Amino acid sequence: MDTMRDRFAPVVSRLLDEDPRVAVVLAEIGVDGFTAARRRHPDRVINVGIREQLLIGAGAGLALTGMRPVLHTFASFLIERPFEQVKLDLGHQGLGAVLVSAAASFDWPAGGYTHMAPGDISLLDTLDGWTVHVPGHPDEAETLLRHAVAAGDDKVYVRLSAQSNTDALPVDGARFRTVREGRSGVVVAVGPMLDAVLTATEGLDLTVLYATTVRPFDGPALRRSAGAARSDIVLVEPYLAGTSTAAASEALADIPHRVLGLGVARRELRRYGTVPEHLAAHGLDPHSLRERITAFTRAASGAPGRPKT
Questions:
Q1: PANTHER family of this UniProt entry (predicted)?
Q2: Which residues, including other chains, have CB under 8 Å from residue 207's CB and lie 6 or more apart?
Q3: Which of 25, 93, 197, 198 is deepest in the core (most CB within 10 A)?
C-alpha cells in the first residue's frame, strides 16, 4: 500500500491543473514529486531551498495576491522552525494557507530528534483559527487534502504520517465517527491510532470514536457518546500526550468526567530505533494501550485490585 505522502504530490498536482488559484511552495523536500507539475505550471510550483522561514513568508505573499498556497516539508521544519512566520506572516495578517507536513512525531527515527515533531499541534493550539486534519489512511489523506485546499482562505494543517490503519473510513473534514459503541467510557482514537485502539479495546464495553479532524474539536460528538452520567474519556493521539485534554474537558464542562490523555511522552528517546519501538516506548502499542485504558476505567469503577480516584 502506498503512504499518505505518496498521495500528496499526485493529488496536489491535479489540484494545480484544476484550480488556477492553487500554488505549491516547497523547501527542497518533496521537489521530485512535482517535476511534471512544475513543467506545466512553472509560476505556481516554487522551491525556496532549505529556507523554512522563507517557505512560510513566500506562502503568505502568495495568499496576499489571492492565491491558495500549499506549503510542504517535514513537520519539525514546517511548524516548529518557522513558528514566528506562521504566527505573524499568516496569523497576524489574517492570511490562509494549507500546511502539509511529513514525518509526523517519529516516522523517520534515523533522522534523529531534529526530524521529530510530537509537539506540532500543541504549538498550533497557541494560535487562533487553525483547522487540523490528522488522516489515518492514504485514502483519507487524499480526501482531507482536497477539503483543505477547497476551504476558502482558511488556515489548515494536514498532518501526514507513514503510519496507517489497515482500512480507510469515510471522513468529512469535520466530525468524529463512531466506530464501536459501549457503556463504560469513551476512547477517542486519532488518525493512525485507530487500529491499535480497536485491538486494545476488543471485548471491552467502551465506545470508540475516530477523529481525523481534531481542530475544531468535535465536542458535540464527544458529548453524545459520553451521555449525561459520569464518563471516563481516553484520548489516544499520535502526538504529544494530553494535547486535546483541555478541549475534551471544555466539551464536557457540565458533565462529571475524567480524562486520560495518551500519546507521545515529553521525555526524549535518545536512540533511533524503529517506529514500532518508539510506539512501545511511549505506551502506544496495543498491549500497552489495553493495560493503560483498563487501569483507568477500572479505577473509576472501584474494581478489585485497583485504587479508587
A1: PYRUVATE DEHYDROGENASE E1 COMPONENT, TRANSKETOLASE-LIKE PYRIMIDINE-BINDING DOMAIN-CONTAINING PROTEIN
A2: 178, 180, 181, 182, 183, 185, 186, 187, 225
A3: 197
CA distances from 284 to 57, 195, 242 (A): 36, 11, 13
What is the rounded distance in angstroms from the CA atom of residue 120 to the CA atom of residue 126? Answer: 10
Instruction: Give the mean model confidence (pLDDT) for residues 144-171.
Output: 97
State residue 229's pLDDT score. Answer: 61
Which pTM value belongs to this model?
Answer: 0.95
Per-residue pLDDT band at 308 (split at 50, 70, 90): very low
Taking the C-alpha atoms of residue 160 and residue 269, their distance in angstroms, rounded to an integer, is 22
> Hey, which CATH number is domain 177-301, 3.30.450.150, 3.40.50.1950, 3.40.50.920, 3.40.50.1000?
3.40.50.920
- And the C-alpha cell for 126? 497557541
